[in-house]
Amino acid sequence: MSQPFDICIRGDGIVGRTLALLLARERLHVGLVSHPAPAKPGVASAAPDVRAYALNAKSRALLESLRCWPDAQHATEVLAMRVLGDDGGEVNFSAQQLQVPGLTWIVDVPVLEAQLAAAVRFQPLIELLDAPQPASLTVICEGKASRTRAEFGIDFEITRYPQTAIAARLACEIPHGQTARQWFTHGEILAFLPLAGPQGNSVAIVWSVRDDRVEALLAASPAEFCQQLQVASQGCLGQLTLSSERCAWPLQSARAERWVGSHEGKAWALAGDAAHNVHPLAGQGLNLGLSDVAALAQTLHEREYWRSVGDEKLLRRYERARKAEVLAMGATMDGLQQLFSQSSAAWQAARNWGMNGFERSGLVKQWVARQAMGF
Asked: Is 265 left (phi over 0), alpha (psi -120 to 50) or beta?
């Protein structure tokens, strides 16, 4: 491409590719730098990606606007959600009761990544790069282990949880019925996310377990692993069969003190996991990242004609627009994780009482649900 880049995006995951497509739609020249994905502990590098994301209505609308939303087999609509505590606490959500088409959609990560990659290849204003190139603005979308963030000297405050997430895919004897399920037990959190469309009988799991249990769970035979899942899930989907490799990663909350700035005279901005990490218990991580890039693209779209895309005052608007929501979500997830990690009987009784109270809270429950759904 003969012209210099307006924007160089470092990181070509879901967040980086989405941003590149949004900016190219604004007729900006974009360089997209590919970075190899970091190896995941407990799984061979050549193994298929077993991750699935819960995406809300706002994220769906954004991806549909780019014509990158997967089909119904790979974006399973969730019509009900059931959350169970460890002493009789229970919270239920229903799309019908809330009068919405779906609570969320469970999206197969490799399919979404492939659709975004195809869209990027057909966009002439995006050039794929092996290394960063000079630009008026560099946007860092490299994830929580960003090398550029460290290179630029950006402070990233990390709080490590004493938990590790284990992800895998399961085949289930009983179809999931488009219901997402979650259990809070003994300081651990297990989620079953429905896959393979409305009639599917497979789920993606995210199991946040104590660090001292990870090694044994990864080393367990498939039958032993599924037996432990059977107990933790109270047998709700019948016989379980492991249908993928297992992968694991340590859990943390983190945030960058600054989201925008300059390095060696050139402007930069953070987006997605490079700017913030939250506990996965509510499945909001990618939703927050997609909201970041939507807000950044909107800020650049609305800029005064005489401002460069690297104008610091302009970028501060983006930072202010996103920081409050992200900080609130991070604090909420951290508080819930801390609440359910307490092992005493008093804490157990209090949190289950709180769950049942929230279940009966009517308008409060509806408001919280609609916020999480992106409405």
From this structure: left
CATH number of the structural domain spanning residue 355: 3.50.50.60
Q: Which domain holds residue 22?
A: 5-159+251-373
| 181 DSSP β-pair partners | 82, 192
Sole residue written with tokens 């497509």? 21
Distances (CA, A) of 336 to 278, 323, 339, 340: 11, 20, 5, 6
Query: Could you tell me if residue 202 is inside a domain?
Result: no
In the predicted model, is pLDDT for residue 355 greater than 90? no
Query: 3-class DSSP state for residue 179?
Result: strand
Confirm whether 146 is domain-assigned.
yes
Distance in angstroms (rounded) separating the CA atoms of residues 294 and 83: 30
Q: Is residue 64 part of a domain?
A: yes
- The 10s digit of each residue's pLDDT in 166-225 is 999 999 999 998 999 988 887 788 999 999 888 889 999 999 999 999 999 999 999 999
Instruction: State the SS3 of 96-160.
Output: HHHCCCCCEEEEEHHHHHHHHHHHHHCCCCEEEECCCCCEEEEEECCCCCCHHHHHCCCCEEEEE
